[in-house]
Amino acid sequence: MSHYVSGLVVREGGGPATVEELRLPEIGPGQVRVRVRAAGVCHSDLSMINGTLRPPHPLVLGHEASGEVVEVGEHVTRAAVGDHVVLNWQPPCRNCWFCDHGQPWLCSTSSGVAALENGITLDDAPVHVTLGLGAFAEQVVAPENAVIAVPRELDFEVAALLGCSVLTGSGAVRNTADVQPGESVLVIGLGGVGLSVVAAARAAGAGQVIAVDVSEAKKGLAEAAGATDFVVSSDALSKDIRVRTEGRGADHAIECVGRASTIRAAWRATRRGGQVTVVGMGAADDMVQIAALDIFSSARTLRASVYGQADPDIAVPALARDVLDGTLSLDHLITDRIELADVPAAFERMARGEGARSVVRL
Ligand SMILES: [Zn+2]
Ligand SMILES: [Zn+2]
């Protein structure tokens, strides 16, 4: 039996995102059908429509979500009807070289796939779904390894954020940068991921957490997340950071924008021997220039953090426990609660640098 659900679709590149009726396929072996309860508006969704990424169309947007399992296919072992789950947009296969070598976040079956077809149709033609999910929809069909069960007490809106921004931000701090107590951490770009980085850096015992954004309006959010300093981004950023770090520069810079200019700024604001962690997903033609001599003499490390460099099957339940026992507060992250049709307005707020996360309630 097929099911008809509403979903947010972009029919062609550069076109508007509109709520359309989608037909879900009958689920197959190893698949689950999930009633989506909350879905966050992530910067990667904006990147799907603003030209940064070039996904195929038509495309159902959305990938940061939580919900309730309403049907399971044959041979499904990790989920049961009624489970509350977080959706995982990069489920590891557990068979490839990377999965076998403890790096499931680099799993070769899912890396770099912006959008897949999974049997969902629009006007009887196949539609693509963002990151294998297309979670701005009332229901999704996904492989069972793309759902992670979480306790029923966990709020669906908070649970949604665990699936992308919070896992990405906290993982960048804990796993990639490995921030130590007393260290100084510069965070550039204060969207959902950047604010999660701020909170995680503070929780890791960082001495100084210097939050940077182009928008002065982010100051209150940065302080609520635990920033010790807030700086409006400018050409004088590296000088400004040096003044605040005894002339050396920060021990860590975590870049959450994904632009050559901000990666350069992160590099220059970091101390000799410091670490630059790139979390933002940038464009293929935006080149970062660093002098060969600078790479040697600065002795800095530049690396990327993909999906928090975490095993989501372990990290998401752990984050859920941290939220439930009060170790991790995410209340400041959700600034707008909206409906599906309001997502385009949320993209505009995001592009203007307003607010933190908008969460669609379904
Ligand atoms: Zn995301
Ligand atoms: Zn794999």
Report on the structure:
- The radius of gyration is 20 Å and the shape is globular.
- The chain has 362 residues and is α/β, with parallel strands linked by helices.
- It is built from 11 helices and 18 strands.
- The model has no long low-confidence stretch (mean pLDDT 94).
- 27% of the residues lie in helices and 30% in strands.
- It comes from Actinoplanes cyaneus.
- Keywords: Metal-binding, Oxidoreductase, Zinc.
- Its cofactor is Zn(2+).
Report the β-strand fraction as a percent range: 25-35%
Write down the secondary-structure element order.
Answer: EEEHEEEHEEEEHHEHEHEHEHEHEHEHE
C-alpha Rg (nearest Å): 20 Å
Major beta sheet, specifics?
A: 7 strands, mixed
- Estimate percent helicity: 25-40%
Q: Can you count the beta strands?
A: 18
Helix tally equals: 11
Using the alpha-carbon principal axes, give the shape: globular
Terminal Cα separation, in Å?
A: 22 Å
Helices and strands: which structural class? alpha/beta
Low-confidence segments: none
Ligands, deduplicated = zinc ion
Mean pLDDT: 94
